[in-house]
Specification:
single chain; alpha+beta; Phosphoenolpyruvate Carboxykinase, domain 3; seven-stranded mixed sheet; 7 strands
């Protein structure tokens, strides 16, 4: 486990600007399932764009890029592990459970605040998930800016 402090970026709908550090609204994600909280972010603005690419469609409402700062969190470092950065949704649909949930369950059991993991499509980029997005662990540190998706 490593201690991590530093900037992170999230891309949100403009309508979410009043709660930029709210946990994921989806009941399931790469590292959370029903009843669990998770806040997903990236270690770079570019990484945030890569992470959200599969969820962006023409005609979506406007989005913003929000920078925040993680403060003294204890993270399990799972970067560089292809088994963590898989497309999990199809497996969950067939098996009823994502294999990536095992990693977050283990990290939660160890008392970690979250995990660091590599981007699936761009492994040189990293993302983070926090299990408890409290102000003691993460705060916004800049005003949100307009974000326009790149379709290249």
């Amino acid at each position: 486990m490593l201690e991590f402090s530093g900037p992170v970026w999230r891309i949100l709908f403009l309508s979410q600007i009043d709660a930029p550090l709210a946990p994921a609204q989806a009941p399931e994600g790469r590292f959370h399932y029903a009843g669990q909280r998770a806040l997903y972010a990236s270690l770079t603005a570019e990484g945030a764009g890569v992470a959200i690419r599969r969820y962006v469609s023409d005609g979506d409402p406007p989005r913003v890029l929000q920078r925040a700062r993680i403060i003294g969190s204890r993270l399990v470092d799972l970067r560089g592990r292809p088994d963590v950065s898989i497309v999990w949704q199809g497996i969950r649909d067939v098996q009823g459970r994502s294999p990536t949930w095992r990693f977050s369950d283990e990290a939660r059991a160890e008392g970690a605040d979250g995990v660091l993991y590599s981007s699936r499509s761009r492994p040189e980029l990293s993302h983070v998930v926090l299990f408890d997005p409290s102000p003691a662990l993460i705060r916004t540190d800049a005003a949100a800016t307009e974000w326009v998706p790149s379709y290249s």
